[in-house]
Amino acid sequence: MLKLYIFAYGMVISKAFDGAGDTRTPTIINFFIYWTLQLPLAYVLSANFAMGPSGVFLAIAVTEVFLSVVYVIFSQQGRWKTILI
User: Fold this and answer.
1) pTM of the full predicted structure?
2) Residues of 16-55 as b/e, b for ≥16 C-beta within 10 angstroms?
3) Do residues 83 and 19 make contact, with C-beta atoms less than 8 angstroms apart?
C-alpha cells in the first residue's frame, strides 16, 4: 500500500513540473530512469534470476519508487521556480 502512495506522490510532482513550465526535467529523468534502470533490471530479474513476469513487475515497482524519490529531490532544489514561460 505504501508503494501506491509513493507512486501517486511521484506522479503529482512530475505533473507539477509540467504545470510550472519545466518539461525538460521530467523528460530527462524519465529517459534515464526507464532506459538505464528499469529495462536492465527487468531483464536481469526475469531472465538471469528466472523470475519471469514477476521479475518484470518487481522491476517496475522498484523503478517507480526510485523515480518518485528522484522527483522529490529535484523539486526540492527549486530550479523549476526559475523557468520563464
Assistant:
1) 0.82
2) ebeebebeebbeebeeebeeebbeebbeebbeeeebeeeb
3) no
How many C-beta neighbours within 10 Å does residue 61 have?
13
- Tell me how far apart the alpha carbons of residues 78 and 83 are, in angstroms, rounded to a whole number: 10
Q: What is d(CA 47, CA 25) in angstroms, rounded to the nearest whole number?
A: 32
- Cα gap 15→23, rounded to integer Å: 9
CB-count exposure of residue 78 (10 Å: 0-12, 13-18, 19+) = exposed
Q: What is the pLDDT along the chain (85 residues), one digit of tens a residue?
A: 666 788 888 889 988 888 888 888 899 999 999 999 999 999 999 999 989 999 999 999 899 999 999 998 988 888 777 877 7
Domain boundaries, the chain: 2-77
